[in-house]
Amino acid sequence: MPPAGQNSPNLRPLSDDKNPSSLEGDSEAVTQIKQVDDAALEKLARAAGDLPAMPDVVDKVLSLVQDPNSEVEDLKKVIEHDPGLTSKLLRVANSAYYQRAREIASLNQAILTLGFKTLLSLTLASSTKTMFDQYNEVARQLRQKMWEHSISTAFLASMISRQSKGVLDQDLCFLGGLLHDVGKLVIGRNFPTQFARIRTAIDQHGKDQRETEEEILGFTHENLGAYLAREWNLPVPLEIAIRCHHDFESAPEHRLDVAVVDLANRLASHLGWNFTRKRVETLEGDPAVLALGLDPARLMDELDDMQSQVVELRQHF
Ligand SMILES: [Fe+2]
Ligand SMILES: [Fe+2]
Questions:
Q1: How confident is the model at residue 20 (pLDDT cuts 50, 70, 90)?
Q2: Cα distance between residue 193 and residue 216, in whole Å
Q3: In this structure, which residues have their CB less than 5 angstroms from ion ligand 2?
Q4: Selection from 242, 55, 230 nearest residue 133 by Cα
Q5: Phi first, then psi: what are they for 70, rounded to 5°?
Q6: Ligand 2: distance of its center to the CA of 237 in Å?
Q7: Which carries the bigger pLDDT value, residue 259 or residue 105?
Q8: Distance 17 CA to ligand 2 centre (A)
């Protein structure tokens, strides 16, 4: 596969590995993407109960992501606190995807070999799993499906962006993939009846997801997800990825990173990692593939390999 995004005029360098600033919030983008009235959305979303809070550990790790002065030691402290998390991270670090010549046996080694930002992303993924588990109100099967879809989209996005040789922000793509559908999880949690009606309309009557959500709830899962991202103080680029994951062209910035999330989301559904399998017949002429300068036939060819890597990686979470 050729480097992604090589034909695009919007390329920007990946920030250096130690400095997590590429996920820092920018600017006017926030106001640009506030297309939905926050107050109205909050009222609607709260109608069936409080909105979920971010787990503490996610909060801590996110503030490290956004703090340009954060140190490896700060991350170590958060991780070491949780022995389960430490061993999980070591298993992931030793998986084929992160192939290293020698076994990674300690957290120090993992940070040194994988890099600060990758470890941050993996820590977030692991903590986010806890968040999914907390949603008692959502049926167990639904939570599992959502988690499988989210973690698979995250790794697919990471794999696609990895080939861009530094043009794309691999961590933003990974975290965007991980959290893109968080709005759906909250709809399932706060509006279980409406959620079931939405699923029936889509799965049994072939209705369009966003139109059905608008019809039944008055907002879409992207709107609600972006609203939550602001409530949780997630970095602005992540909020953009969540808001625009079904339409990367509407992203006010980070358009190519969002294109990766958009594409990875559809590939995850193509591989059956969603509520319903949605086959992608061809990637020829696909706007995200075109924008990223990817070779559609090669990408399709590589899917089998990506699929087995994702299956291996996600079993560690
Ligand atoms: Fe979605
Ligand atoms: Fe999705």
A1: very low
A2: 10
A3: 181, 265
A4: 55
A5: -70, 150
A6: 17
A7: 259
A8: 28
DSSP 146: H
- pTM for this structure? 0.83
Of all helices (H) and strands (E), which one includes residue 144?
helix 140-162
pLDDT for 114: 82
**Residue predicted with more confidence, 92 or 240:** 240
**Quick one: tokens of 242?**
């969540």
Name the closest ligand to CA 187: 1
pLDDT per position as a tens digit, 191-224 = 888 999 999 999 889 899 999 999 999 899 999 9
Ligand 2: distance of its center to the CA of 283 in Å? Answer: 18
Report the distance separating Cα 317 and Cα 147, nearest Å: 10
pLDDT over 80 (residue 155)? yes
Distance 143 CA to ligand 2 centre (A): 13
Ligand 2 centroid, distance to 190 Cα (angstroms): 19
List the domains of the chain with CATH numbers. 20-54+138-314 (1.10.3210.10)
> What band does 9 get if pLDDT is binned at 50, 70 and 90?
very low
3-state helix, strand, coil in the chain (%, to 5): 65, 0, 35
Q: Rounded distance, CA 148 to CA 265, Å?
A: 12
Within 10 A of 293 (CB to CB), how many other CB atoms are there? 18
Structure tokens, 181: 């559908």
- Count the neighbouring beta carbons within 10 Å of the beta carbon of residue 211: 12
